[in-house]
Amino acid sequence: MKKYNSEFKSMIVELYKTGRRVLELSREYGVSEVTIYKCIKQISPITSIDDADITLEEIKQLCEVLNVPRSTYYQLKHQTESKWKRENHQLLEQIKKIHFESSCRYGSIKVHRQLIKEGFSVSLKRVQR
């Protein structure tokens, strides 16, 4: 298996971003298509659907393959995280912090007490979950 340096990988990705096809780059530089796709994913990963330049035709095709209406795609794309999910995420991070600060000795009851001291309004059952 041949190793490629980061400069070569970056060059391949830049050429890909300018519009060159993977098959074309593969033939020109003697690199497998899989390797090129891995370089692209490694150097410039798409973190969300908003980062991608997806055309209407591609959206139609994706929805057709997944057997999902386009309205569902757009609904999910524009959906924001609910207040409950944000609070739950914040609470979970705080629970983990308290648990690890206690050298993993605190159980749900002590974690609950500590959360109350820190100003969180949360039930013991929610902490236990």
From TrEMBL:
**Signal peptide, first to last residue:** none
- Please give the superkingdom of this protein's source: Bacteria
* Any Gene Ontology biological process: DNA transposition
Q: Which GO terms describe its molecular function?
A: DNA binding; transposase activity
Report domain HTH-like positions: 89-129
InterPro entries recorded for this chain? Homeodomain-like_sf, HTH-like_dom, Transposase_8, Transposase_IS3/IS150/IS904
What this protein is called in its record is IS3 family transposase
Organism name: Turicibacter sanguinis
Please name the taxonomic classification of the source. Bacteria, Bacillati, Bacillota, Erysipelotrichia, Erysipelotrichales
